[in-house]
């Protein structure tokens, strides 16, 4: 319309009321008082009984601006109410998006709830499994394209969804490493609904600003999970490394991203020596390989496999032996608060907190006796308070670890069935390694140190033995 007005093709604009022209009182006032008169355009608002041809100065300069301001205020009020309503829905775990993420669809019974799309959900599971096996994002995208699997955009088009995105390129959108990464980093696949990642600047500006992660709205168990929380967190760890398969290989070596020098903590690199028909595979420190100040730390792959497998089985055997304690706890139906009193780490942290409380209390006496100045008093009080709060957070972290054991059953939290399967393994593979091992450190004296995943969870699982013994003693005394 404005193009036609500027071209001289319009001599009159008619609207139902002033709000139909615009709810921005500044813009609406500019059009009525400046733009339309400049192009000799008559403006009529029917229900507001305004006609620029017959209106006097009082109507144009006072009545119309007031009505435009009221319309603007109404738009602002509605915007605030809509935002508040949407936030309440998100906090209740209702999905408010127009389009679902790949792998889900909207429930037929409840449109604000996500349910798995069987076909796409199966593809998502494959993507996570391939990542754990050692495939790069680009390699996974290539696999899907060769299999003829439709990309998320093409799949939504095939289902009849009118989705438009800036990620499409070419006549037919293909899988890309970026698309794979978006799937691998999407927490919604764990059953946790994550929304509110961005918001509009205000009701007048369409631009959306990204919000910091701590302000996102997360609701756990809002819908059925496609990927387990354990596998999702494992993949997030693997994404920190740039997975590059070796020459002629489709996926990364089983030790990639796991093997490190025990002294400089740089990654170990794989080397292959060939002599006639014999081939020897070994690992050396990357720092030494670059000519840096570290030693070779060389270890043959065959020896490393044997050491790691033996060490892993020994650790798992220990936890499986102690799993009887976990079973006993489940039968006793105890709460995590009862067992928490036996946690030595929490006990130590509480003692540290008490120390800083005593130090902070003593500052008042020192100030009264003029042992310290008022400035020293303020500085030390801030230091002690900071340490106290840090310890408080550490205590919460320890308590959360114990809660994790008791949330869905103690034994279930430890993945005991997966551990039992490992005891039957005779040859290491990448899935087994990344599932249980966080880091492998190789020292110059040939020592190999395994840093297990969830090691703190394992240590907490061993802790309840004290609780069981206490219960047995108490029962014996009663008898």
Write the layout of secondary structure elements.
Blueprint (H helix, E strand, L loop, with lengths): L1 H5 L5 E4 L2 H4 L3 H14 L3 E4 L4 E2 L5 H35 L12 E3 L7 E3 L1 H16 L3 H10 L5 H7 L18 H8 L8 E3 L2 E5 L2 E6 L6 E3 L9 H10 L20 E3 L6 E8 L2 E8 H4 L9 E2 H32 L3 H5 L3 H25 L5 H34 L2 H4 L2 H7 L7 H7 E6 L5 E5 L2 H8 L2 H14 L1
Parallel strand pairs: 1-2, 10-14
Antiparallel strand pairs: 2-3, 4-5, 6-9, 7-8, 11-12, 12-13, 14-15
Strand residue percentage: 5-15%
- Percent of residues in helices: 40-55%
Name the average pLDDT. 81
Distance between the termini: 94 Å
Number of helices: 19
Strand count: 15
Overall radius of gyration: 33 Å
Biggest sheet layout: 3 strands, mixed
Largest sheet strand order: 1-2-3
Shape: extended
Going by helix content, strand content and strand pairing, the class is alpha+beta
Unreliable sequence segments = 408-414
